[in-house]
């Protein structure tokens, strides 16, 4: 079979975005793995290329697809940045000839050119999404515009933005598409939303009510702190028709500080799930939004400090003059 896999640069998690062939089924397509494993995919991301004529002779091959006997991997780049890999698996040893290798490399070069065009268009979409945060004076209005656009873009039933404006390790609801009920704040580390902020990790969950899946995500990220659904705040959406409560969240991180968390709850089609590609794209949006917020807040803080200095200087001058 053939597969395309993306790496989330914030979490170093590799996941499938497309695949074909008998070696791939729905269950295998849901698998994610960390580059910390330093297996074949990780080596290919670093070296650019890898070929195993016989995977059974390799110590660093993890049996993602048990039937695989030989494996060819090539990384792909967009504007010079490595974003993922293309892998081809064979059920026989030494399945790749030199002619195949040359043809694969040519196809990947064409693939990269197409991806660069799409990435440029995506950049424009992201710029439009974060534009209100930079341009609209009222942050409430800007945030509501953002979550409304993200809800449509990701085909979710609800989107909410939580922010920690004053670096108090408390996330407060800034905007939501579907105002609901409950405690609209999360301490860092509390619930899934707080876990995302505490560990600076995006998460993609098929069902928030499945403790085994939540434990698997902890292990995937190599984090011992329990990932648990706290149910602090529930958006006002129809949960009853959704047998699985899918969930996607990404942290907003700038200069090492978590500014907030964006989260999406349940796909419009409850039978569908958020994808690894959704997670990677949401994290890209979160990264750019974090930079915009950081600039905005830094300007606001600087302006406030200057006004305080000016006020203190005026008061001091009045006191010295006896006025």
Descriptive report:
The chain has 323 residues and is of the alpha+beta class. Helices cover 41% and strands 26% of the residues. The mean pLDDT is 87.
Summed up, what is this model?
With 323 residues, this protein is of the alpha+beta class.
Helix-strand layout with pairing:
Blueprint (H helix, E strand, L loop, with lengths): L1 E7 L4 E8 L5 H4 L2 E3 L5 H8 L1 E4 L17 E9 L2 E10 L7 H38 L3 H15 L2 E8 L6 E7 L4 E2 L2 E3 L3 H9 L3 E3 L5 H11 L11 E2 L12 E8 L2 E11 L8 H46 L2
Antiparallel strand pairs: 1-2, 1-6, 2-3, 4-5, 5-6, 7-8, 7-14, 8-10, 9-12, 11-13, 13-14
Structural class, judged by helices and strands?
Answer: alpha+beta
Proportion of residues in helical segments: 40-55%
The helix/strand series, from N terminus to C terminus, equals EEHEHEEEHHEEEEHEHEEEH
Query: Kindly, what is the distance between the CA atoms of the first and last residues, rounded to a whole number of angstroms?
Result: 84 Å
Relative strand content: 25-35%
Mean pLDDT: 87
Described by the principal axes of the CA atoms, the overall outline is elongated
So how many helices?
A: 7
Would you count the extended β strands for me? 14
Uncertain runs are none
Major pleated sheet: 6 strands, antiparallel
Lateral strand order in the biggest sheet: 3-2-1-6-5-4
Provide the gyration radius in Å.
Answer: 23 Å
């Amino acid at each position: 079979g053939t597969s395309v896999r993306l790496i989330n640069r914030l979490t170093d998690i590799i996941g499938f975005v497309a695949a074909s062939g008998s070696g791939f089924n729905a269950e295998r397509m849901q698998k994610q793995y960390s580059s910390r494993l330093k297996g074949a995919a990780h080596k290919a991301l670093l070296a650019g290329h890898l070929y195993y004529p016989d995977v059974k002779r390799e110590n660093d091959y993890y049996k993602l697809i048990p039937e695989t006997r030989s494996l060819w991997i090539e990384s792909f780049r967009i504007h010079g940045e490595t974003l993922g890999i293309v892998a081809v698996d064979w059920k026989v040893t030494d399945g790749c000839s030199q002619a195949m290798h040359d043809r694969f490399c040519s196809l990947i070069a064409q693939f990269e050119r197409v991806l660069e065009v799409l990435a440029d268009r995506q950049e424009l979409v992201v710029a439009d999404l974060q534009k209100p945060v930079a341009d609209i004076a009222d942050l409430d209005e800007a945030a509501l515009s953002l979550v409304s656009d993200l809800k449509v873009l990701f085909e979710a039933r609800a989107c909410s933005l939580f922010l920690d404006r004053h670096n108090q390790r408390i996330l407060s609801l800034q905007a939501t598409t579907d105002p609901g009920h409950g405690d609209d704040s999360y301490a860092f580390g509390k619930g899934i939303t707080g876990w995302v902020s505490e560990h600076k990790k995006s998460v993609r969950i098929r069902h928030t009510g499945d403790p085994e899946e939540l434990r698997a995500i902890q292990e995937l990220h190599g984090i011992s702190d329990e990932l648990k659904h706290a149910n602090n705040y529930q958006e006002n959406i129809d949960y009853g028709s959704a047998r699985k409560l899918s969930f996607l969240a990404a942290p907003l991180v700038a200069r090492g500080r978590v500014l907030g968390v964006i989260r999406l709850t349940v796909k419009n089609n409850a039978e569908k799930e958020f994808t690894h590609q959704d997670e990677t794209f949401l994290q890209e949006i979160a990264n750019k939004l974090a930079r915009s917020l950081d600039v905005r807040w830094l300007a606001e803080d600087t302006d406030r400090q200057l006004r305080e200095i000016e006020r203190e200087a005026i008061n001091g001058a009045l006191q010295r003059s006896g006025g």
